[in-house]
Amino acid sequence: MNPDFVPINGTDHIEFYVGNAKQAALFYQHCMGFQLVAYAGPETGVRDRASYVLQQEKIRFVLTTSLQSNHEIADHVRTHGDGVKVLALWVDDATRSFRETTLRGAEPAAPPKKLTDEFGEVIVSSIKTYGDTLHTFVERSRYSGPFLPGFKPVSSSLKVTPIGLKYVDHCVGNVELGQMNRWVNFYEQVMGFKLLITFDDKDISTEYSALMSKVVSNGNGYIKFPINEPAKGKKKSQIEEYLDFYHGAGVQHIAIATDDIIHTVSELRQRGVEFLRVPDVYYDDVLDRVGHINEDLQALKKLNILIDRDEEGYLLQIFTKPVQDRPTLFFEIIERNGAKSFGKGNFKALFEAIELEQGLRGNL
After folding, report:
1. Which CATH class is domain 10-153?
2. What number of H helices and E strands is found in the chain?
3. What architecture is the 165-361 domain classified under in CATH?
4. Helix, strand, or coil here: 155?
């Protein structure tokens, strides 16, 4: 039997539920170089919410806020703070994707629905995954509009310069203790993903805390979802801190690919984005560990970009601090030079950097 019974072409979009979408949209435009391309709200006939669609290369973010205090979006923000609600997957057949996954045990969130406007038609359907997160299947081959029917094309007066962000590399979910294998099984059995790699508490630990992680991937490798759960340690892990403040399982970070991480991170820093910091001593012996790289080590050290290597090549990566006041969602910027892995050699340094921030917050 072909395990890829839900063929996926890539990430269609990621929708965030936020407290103030108008202001959040300015952050993603100014700080991360996204262009405002579409909008839905009262001015377009939508009475209960406002949504701003932002795009850069193949990445599409949707920022949605409720206009009513007694709305499910407001409830989501009240419980979780700003966070990811929908990881939408671009498929050829949203009806089949819904049928195949629900037949295998997925809990339905929204049955297939055809949306139409002057630009054509889109079929969407949704299933539930960990926490309050949804996967929405989007079938858009007969659509030429800016996003979805009901959204109007718009642009901003803000002068925006893209910073080289290309596509979503992977999205990481944090789940409660004992739940990681349940959700790995969900992706394997319900969606036909395969287990790519496993990290245990020996791989990802410090003196104080640890986590367990398994990475699942769809058939063509375009979609990769690491799933984390806390492991026992002397003190509270970053996963436990996330679960405490998000009030449940959810998307921990979104990794975005670039072809020039030095340029991208330089722009992000210049625009005010804050990053985790590893000590300068990390760079003293890093080339002994990873071997030759094409980039200037001093430039990477100045920007605090991390380096790791696997059998296929090397990668460069860096992690932002949380992008809202709750210590929940953050971003990873990654440049792959052949490497297919996730930076295992950097886990300890990263964990210690995260623990330093946790300590400042009083949450370690």
Report:
1. alpha beta
2. 10, 17
3. Roll (3.10)
4. coil
